[in-house]
Design a protein that fits this description.
By secondary structure, the chain is α+β, with helices and mostly antiparallel strands. The chain has twelve helices and ten strands. Helix 3 crosses helix 7 and helix 9 crosses helix 10. Among the domains are: 46 residues, Helicase, Ruva Protein, domain 3; 91 residues, 2-Layer Sandwich (Tetrahydropterin Synthase, Chain A), CATH 3.30.479.20. The strands form four sheets. Strands 1-2-5 form a three-stranded antiparallel sheet. The protein has a three-stranded antiparallel sheet with strand order 6-7-10.
Amino acid sequence: MAKIAASDVMKLRKKTGVGMMDAKKALVQTDGDFDKAIEVLREKGVAKAEKKSGKVAANGLTKIAIKGNTAAIVEINSETDFVATSDPFKDLVDVISAAIVENKPADVAAALKLPTEKGTIKDSIIETTQVTGEKVTLRRFAVVEKNDDEVFGSYLHNGGLIGSLVLLKGGDEATAKDIAMHVAATNPEFLNKDQVPADRLAHEKQILTEEALNEGKPEKIVDKMVEGRLRKFLSEICLEDQDFVKDPDQTVSQYVKSKNASIVKFVRYEVGEGIEVEKESFEDEVRSQLK
């Protein structure tokens, strides 16, 4: 059996991020072969990741990377917020966002195949799962391209729990960032009323009409009431019609127009939104640990 030097163990740890004992065991198993040891650790990482495939990863971070005329916003998840704030996880987020903005993959499956120092993004995720002991996933991303007369604005709230990316035509980066901050704060659903699906409008109008009639309002004024309430509804869900958070006396549309700009697109990610998490009582948690 080959003698395993401490320097080799440290080199393998630095390369893979695993613990000292795992690194030493892999080198012993492969008789000191560094490359084979890496493969052994990756296989163990895959096994560990597969065991955790049923876990729910609803914490994590969003990240925005910008390179030239391309921007990417990503969401990467972990099981706990503790891991989400760890250096290995944050390093992974940086690696993934940089690879996506550079290569502009079509979907998550394509993104997982992008090359990294660890092999691929999938390999990097597996390794981070192994290091942190938690399920880690690339949940989603969006790539946005701009023209030379357009400008990006980005904002990460609370370290990346919410990320927003905005594209303006005209204006400047300061204006774009203002709108990105507004998007993060208000969570609009659509850019303007033209983007609201017709069936959504019809459904809301029906609800508002029934509400007005149930209030005992005369039918001859119901239509005007519904029209006013529908405008209020649209001003709540459409970015351009919302009151600008930094100056509620004007709408977002009026603000960007005053800066000789218009909004082309926005993307907002909030970590874990839409993921169902099974809640466990403290008593159940203690019981499970005692089994």
